[in-house]
Amino acid sequence: MQLTGLSIILPVRNIAGEISGILRSIASQADYLNAEYIVVDMGSTDQTVLEAVQLIKELKLRGYVIQNGNGSVSAALNTGIQKSGGEYITFIFARRLYRDFMKGYFDTAQKTKADFVFGSISESDAKFAERRVISKVVKRATGADYVKEIIRGNVHIDISAIMIRHKFITQKQIHFNENCAYGYAEEFVFRCLLAAETIVQSPTIIMRDNVFELKRGKLEKVGNHIFQHTDAMLRIADIIKTDFSDNDELAQVITYKKLPLTVMHGVDVMLKEGNGYSAIHGYLKVAGYDKLLVTGKQTDKELKRRILFWNVVPWIYQPK
Length: 320
Hints:
Layout: E1 6-12, H1 19-29, E2 35-41, H2 48-58, E3 63-67, H3 73-83, E4 88-91, E5 98-99, H4 102-112, E6 116-120, H5 123-134, H6 143-152, E7 162-165, H7 166-171, H8 184-195, E8 199-205, E9 207-208, H9 228-243, H10 248-272, H11 277-287, H12 301-312
Parallel strand pairs: 1-2, 1-4, 2-3, 6-8
Antiparallel strand pairs: 4-7, 5-9, 6-7
Helix pairs in contact: 1-2, 6-8, 6-10, 8-9, 9-10
């Protein structure tokens, strides 16, 4: 029986014209990894499903297409996880493709038995990661360390270029929040990091695939649904409060940096969509998000300035 090394999960909707290039690009990366391809369709009304089925057959890939109904991306990803049988899992998104990372990641995962693997963004980053992979002396950073540095902007981890051990997320019962359309990816990554025992940065440098990547069209207005991202971070804050109660620095970073930053991002989105200052202030107060606009030592000067202007002279405030 052939063991599956990697499960590649691809949620799709109405990309009949792009699915061929995307699958071919992925397949070229996954050669010799004993990969399976799980395409989860989210209610396509074009020929996406047919094109995907035909291409899987044409390329002789081990995989299938699941029609998951007209649901969310989160629901599609959860279905893919449930159906996957690989030792490791990676997620592919048509609008954010990376090239030539899978083999390097998988090699790193096999060498280190990592729960969670992410990539490098520069040559210096890659050299540092290589030393950490082969060293038995250098102490690896914890998940709490990574969360802090992601929030501070010092570490970059993109859900479109990660690899996760299947047994790890099933044992820890980690899944995507299906009621969250904004912030679900960051919440999932943070949950993985906070639960993982072995997190490894691969020396593989990640690069965007601008050739096959689906170009973004005109975005629909999201309104106050954007604050689902804040709710996602509040759930992470609850995990930190419960499981990392002795980590004051982590608690302060989430409280005085991430939460107010996420609220202000929501404010910016609503302002750009044409909502009035008074209406947004009223919504924040009713929803309780205004109480998250607190500052402390972990709040940078720029964020403090934004919060001050928004609270005191909102008619002068300019969204980022």
